[in-house]
Amino acid sequence: NEVFKGSLNEKGIATINWALPSMPSIPSAIRIKLNAKVLEKGGRPNEGWKYIDYDPYPSYIGVKEPSGYGYYQVGKEINFPVVLLSPEGEPVTGKELKYKIYRNTKHWWHQYDNRRRYQLKYKEDNQTSLASEGAITSGTSPTMISYRPEEDGEYLIEVYDPNNGHTSAFFFSSYRYGSVPGGDLNEGTLALKT
Fold this sequence. Notes:
The protein is mostly beta strands and 194 residues long.
């Protein structure tokens, strides 16, 4: 966005007031770069820039993926550490944070228009459902969200601050050990008949 275009005063100074635009959907802190170009009387440009760090939220949620690879066994409890930090990195205590865990499943099947001619059509469907929700209170050390996935699927854990609007989330999957995530999705397999 162009903020200002005009002339400097007799001392070579221009004072500019600029209100940051509304940024309701940015996920975290940002770095703003301000560029300035001043043209001398002869037309030669002098350019400069400045970076400004901007924190749109008074505190930030952090959720750690404890396994390091996002894969968990069905029926085993998972503990997700959650912290709430100030922009300076200090713990913010006593704040209520809410969480939701969603489960996404993918179903596929073969559909024949005419079984005698074996004209095969591949169909699929995704379904997302709310698997769990609750609230925790932030502390000086990480607060745990415990969850035990009871079914195969891809999951999303989302933790949000209902007061300031900051949200943190990540995906993980849960399958029975010995099976392969998505191993039964035979999209590349076609039934052929001579």
